[in-house]
Amino acid sequence: MKITAIETLVCHARMRNWVFVKVVTDQPGLIGWGEATLEWHTRGVVGTIEDLSQLLVGEDPSRIEHLWQTLYRQHFWHGNGIIRSTAIAGIDIALWDIAGKVAGLPCHQLWGGPVRDSIRTYCHLGGGNMEDFYETPVDNAKRFGELATQAVEEGFTAFKTMAVPPTMPIEGNRPVRAAAACVEAMREAVGEDIDIMVDCHARPSPAMGLKFAKALDPYDLYFLEEPCWPESIEGLARINAAVTTPIATGERMTHLAQFRDLFAAQGCDICQLDITHCGGLSEARRIAALAEAYRIALAPHNPQGPVSTAASLEFGFSQPSYIICESVHADVPWRAEVVEEGYTIEPQGRTVRPNTRPGLGIEINEAEIKKHPFEQEVLQRTFYSDGSVGDW
Ligand SMILES: [Mg+2]
């Protein structure tokens, strides 16, 4: 068995261009699907996959670890920058899809079999619709309450919001009060039994992140995400030590050693590794093993396309400390046309039953992808009130 080609298919999905990776083999009909979506860096990732493919064409796709080592270590530069780690991830996920298809088993069966009966999912406010999730202003607490009610009406028992605005390194309490008002409105709207998550999007400094964390601590959030830059592991650790709310982070980390430093510093209680950015399922499994040693929970970052979701679910059915899967369902109205999935979702509760088909269990509709060719992603720029650059 040999790899004969590695192709990329780009599908413009408004906020993101989904980058699907197709690994083709010399066996009739045997292909693997991966995803390497990296918003605002689509051309970079596609070019990198083309560069890397020369290392793999002609090789045996069943030697996944050997090929991963090749992708990560050859050509002098290690594969830990975000563009290359995403490109490697897309290829690695597709190789696991092939391995499952060759064995006739879902991927999670290759990794020891299912460790749970179902996986809980959570949504973004507005279902991942760009305007609702990213652009609802934090001075409109009422709107947060309405969108929270909508999420629960759609069957979710947990949802995530962006209730923390872009904030200068030090600001007064105004943004903190606004965030607390939004969370209060959502809590009042949905009651005590629904889990609310707040994503700070690494907008605050460690000092402001600490303020937000303390102000939101009484609302019993399921987790508080990226309360400061991921580069500031000591800032994350300081915040994590100061509140009872579990701190979640990891979506911008690209390799095992970064997670080692994060875990050792007790920078989080929930690891949000992104399987499409951290080097794929091979590296994700190493990161998960390391997290297990620290008893850190796993809740992978997954706002991308349907192959990312399938990979995250296969991973989740094999990982004991996996607690919940991020999901978006209303980013584009034709999402379901692009993919046929092997798993089923319970409408009430939005829990997922395991995939029963080989590999990732997905069929990709290439004709549908062709209807949505590459377009430049929506430009996002953030400036503070004085005109200086802020974090989106
Ligand atoms: Mg996030």
Descriptive account of the structure:
By secondary structure, the protein is an alpha/beta fold. The protein folds into 2 domains: 3-104, Enolase-like, N-terminal domain (Enolase-like, domain 1, 2-Layer Sandwich); 110-360, Alpha-Beta Barrel (TIM Barrel). Helix content is 39%, strand content 16%. It contains 14 helices and 15 strands. Helix 7 packs parallel to helix 8. The chain is globular, with a radius of gyration of 20 Å. The structure holds magnesium ion.
Helical run tally: 14
Remind me, CATH topology of the largest domain? TIM Barrel
Q: Name the average pLDDT.
A: 96
Q: What share of residues is helical?
A: 25-40%
Rg: 20 Å
Query: Which regions have little confidence, pLDDT < 50, spanning 5+ residues?
Result: none
Bound molecules: magnesium ion
- Our estimate of the beta-strand percent is 15-25%
Task: Set out the fold topology.
Layout lengths: L2 E11 L2 E10 L5 E5 L6 H15 L7 H10 L8 H22 L3 H4 L8 E6 L5 H6 L5 H13 L4 E4 L12 H17 L4 E5 L6 H11 L6 E3 L7 H10 L4 E3 L6 H9 L5 E2 L8 H15 L2 E2 L7 H11 L8 E3 L7 H4 E2 L3 E2 L5 E3 L9 E2 L1 H5 L22
Parallel strand pairs: 4-5, 4-11, 5-6, 6-7, 7-8, 8-9, 9-10
Antiparallel strand pairs: 1-2, 2-3, 4-14, 12-15, 13-14
Helix pairs in contact: 1-3, 2-3, 6-7, 7-8, 8-9, 10-11
The chain binds magnesium ion.
